[in-house]
Queue: 2 jobs
Job 1
Amino acid sequence: MTGPQSAAENVVDGPQKRRVTGVGRLLIAVYGLLALAATGRSFVQIASKFDQAPLAYSLSALSAVVYIVATIALVRSSGRWYRVAWVTISFELLGVLVVGTLSIVDPALFPHDSVWSVFGSGYLFIPLVLPILGMMWLVRHRPARPQGPARPQGQAGRQASS
Amino acid sequence: MIEWFTWLQVGVAVLAGVLCLFLGLFGRVPNDLTMGATALVELLLVGQLVVSIAAPFAGNTASGSLLEFYTYLVSALIVPVAAAAWALIERSRWSTVILGGACLAIAVMVYRMFQIWTVQGL
């Protein structure tokens, strides 16, 4: 009976497992959820009351698209997608800061139910926190570039299924 | 929407969510228990869909926007399926955490749906 021994060696989720992408996966999941929420909400807004606040609802739709692209870029996160992730996440941070500030200074400009109004308070401030976490993740998971001095072309390492 | 069914659904989703979060943070990969809990949440959502379609014929109509209600419901139906698909593809502890997050999100969404159905304002 050699079964139990080999089974014990093959325990899948040992504490030493080197899965640096783990928390990053969580980030992607939250991004996906936010993308879904923003898409659903802007769909409702545009389908039912677009003429009430065209600016805010167009922005809502734009933010939904950006969240979707950011989610995809984080999933890919290599080469060109890495740059796309930076652009979309920066756009989100800018959006939530600008719209959040404007919605407090001049509430008439944005009705209170857009994704970025009052710094995303309708979404537990996730739209404000998420871009910052996303940027931290991107900084730490830069794809390997040939400019590093002692790093010989480790670029193909993480291309699992693209 | 039927009130007791809605609260049952919120309760199950919260329990399933907390369970999955807990087990995930303790390092469990997705298993029959956590996947089953997520499946139960999805099943109740399908039940809610049936109830919501049938209820107006029994005089129980929504007071709010049906469009918004069904956008929530359709989005909610997608979430556990997506989380479970993820858990099948990537068998890591974080997939269990994601199952938990999905279930908790369902609890919030169902509560919002209940608000749309019953009380107006906000």
Job 2
Amino acid sequence: MRIACPLCGERDSREFSYKGHALALERPSEDAGFGAWDDYLHNRENPAGWTRELWFHDFGCGSWLVAERNTVTHEFGKVELAENVKEAMA
Amino acid sequence: MTELKALSPAAGLLPLEIGGAALREDEMRQLTLVAPFKGKEAALAKALEAAHGLRWPEAGETSVSGAVRLVWFGRGAALLMGGEASSKLAPYAALTDQSDAWSCLVLEGAGARDVLARLTPLDMRDVAFPMGATARTEVFHMACSITRLAAESWQIMGFRSMAKTLVHDLQVAMEGVAARAS
């Protein structure tokens, strides 16, 4: 697998480590109910197809990335800096 | 008072020459990590130009002015090599002296690229990694910085604490390339 880091260009997947679904960026407010926090912490979809994930370019530039990946083919789609994704959410 | 002698990270291990590749330790330079504060990137670029005659390097670039080099060193950071950072940069960036933190090696020679190909997943072809190009990447499971200094010369920077491992890994790769060539 090769991942196109927005800063470094296309790199081998061994330079990256995987965190989990990009849902982790959508932290509920402190007074959100038990259900919202339960979903945020524990419940994940397990799609056969496209999903959005957090990857860390730890052996490269040190950026957190939001990457689209197809779980069936391991094809990567759009890859963005998590910083930009988070700013766009605000 | 005790007289302390400075030892370079790879003291006693280098130089090495195996086959068509040579590995030596670069001279010890002052290293300062320059990390711009949020929103101060443009102001820092101006201050760098004025104080050092250096351009802020985009990802994968090196900026050179005389003996001083500014090497892109990851997201939002560059390493100033070979000179003291001007205090005029301080309002715009966090400046951290890292002179003792890195071992700086130089791998050169006709076989150097083949040696690197054994250790890093980076594309080392001329079109992908021309002179002056730099990258943070993996060198045999260690996070390193590689910069191309000349046609057949690459600077490899690894953590000082892992200098012996880095030299060892490079030596094994150099021996492998030499064995395949003979």
